[in-house]
Design goal:
Two copies of one chain form a homodimer. Chain A has 189 residues and is mainly alpha-helical. Chain A has two domains: 59 residues, Arc Repressor Mutant, subunit A, CATH 1.10.10; 122 residues, Tetracycline Repressor, domain 2. Helix content of chain A is 75%, strand content 0%. Chains A and B meet through helix 7, helix 10 and helix 11 of A and helix 7, helix 10 and helix 11 of B. Chain B binds a DNA duplex (30 and 30 nucleotides) through helix 2 and helix 4. Chains A, B: GO terms for molecular function: DNA-binding transcription factor activity; transcription cis-regulatory region binding.
Chain lengths: 189, 189
DNA sequence: CAATTAGTTGTACTATCGTACAAGTAGTAC
DNA sequence: GTACTACTTGTACGATAGTACAACTAATTG
């Protein structure tokens, strides 16, 4: 009844769409200019609306950043879950995902890094920011129950992304897959 | 002669001292409030001087950030070099350094992360930002010539620091040492 | 239909920022 | 001693930011 009530009210639906539009505009800004580029004015302009709207839906700048981090993290969560739900080698999928940081996924990976770094100074963001690592750990657990190896694999994925983003490090999926395998299994099966 | 000329001019010496003071104040701001807290005014206030002075020595905000990144990277470089110059187990020293990210070294580690992340959008900063990874790789090379293992170890150190900073992850030096050893040698010697 | 709720628009305030610029002080060279 | 150089102080401008607030429009409820 209450749940039905909520979806029926067209205003709320429109509000949700507007909210999503604003979050998308925020992410576009982060990807293009970095987290520091996010202001109510830049987001409003990107979304083609007034700042009053961004303020109506997100009372503070912080709210915008939190929503952006949540959104980008959701994206990664879906990606990794899909890797786990397939018959293919999940480590191979993960290697490809990491390798994307050098190409089509670079902006998104950098946005994730910049936004998640905010979590270090904001304990409230920790649960969101940790989800990437939790997701990778969960994926690793489908192939190993060695907790140390799993922990190392999670750290390795983080570190490889860092190298790619900050160093233009080599991003060959096969090479990355080998490193992941070595770390999780001791050899590289 | 020219070098001698430079150190004799008392004005230049004072300038260098002033410059170092400003960089130190910048780092204090980064550690306390993050890279976004760095403005000419906040730095000037922290150093007890006027913004005209910060501007005299660092024409742009960017110059300040670059100097701060260089400084914090120098600190880490010295630390790691010292680990290599000792008879002790360098991996053990590295593990302790990483573990510091959970305690006394947390602010510095976070500052390094925030500043080095700037390098992703500024190719000119890459050489500076990569030095941490180069240093760790060099340390690893004193113990292994397996380039894949070395690359994995570097990424692992990055990832472990991330987990500590963003997640309040466990930071037991012995545990970290074991992970480092496993990654570099296949076992944990 | 009136009242309430959700969304939208617009104005304006205070605060802070990066930076330009001029004037002054102090140290050095010739 | 003069000219030059390095450093220091102070003022002020234009721009942008976060945010408060009021008024209005549209949708929903009873």
């Amino acid at each position: 009844m209450a749940a039905e009530q909520e979806t029926v009210d067209g205003r709320r639906l429109r509000g949700e769409r507007r909210r999503a539009q604003i979050i998308e505009a925020t992410l576009a800004i982060v990807r293009r200019d970095g987290a520091t580029g996010v202001t109510h004015r830049t987001v409003a302009k990107e979304a083609g609306i007034t700042t009053s709207l961004t303020l109506y839906y997100f009372a503070t700048l912080d709210d915008l950043l939190v929503a952006a981090l949540t959104s980008v993290t959701d994206t990664y969560t879906h990606r990794i879950r899909r890797l786990m739900d397939t018959d293919e080698d999940p480590l191979d999928g993960l290697a490809h995902l990491i390798a994307e940081s050098a190409g089509p996924g670079r902006e998104r990976a950098l946005a994730e890094r910049e936004l998640s770094t905010l979590a270090a100074r904001r304990p409230a963001l920790r649960p969101i920011a940790r989800r990437w690592r939790d997701n990778v750990a969960e994926l690793a657990r489908t192939r190993s129950d060695d907790e140390d190896a799993i922990e190392a694999l999670v750290a390795l994925t983080d570190g490889l992304c860092t190298a790619i983003l900050l160093d233009d490090h080599e991003a060959d999926p096969d090479h990355i897959r080998a490193l992941l395998g070595k770390t999780l299994f001791g050899d590289a099966p």
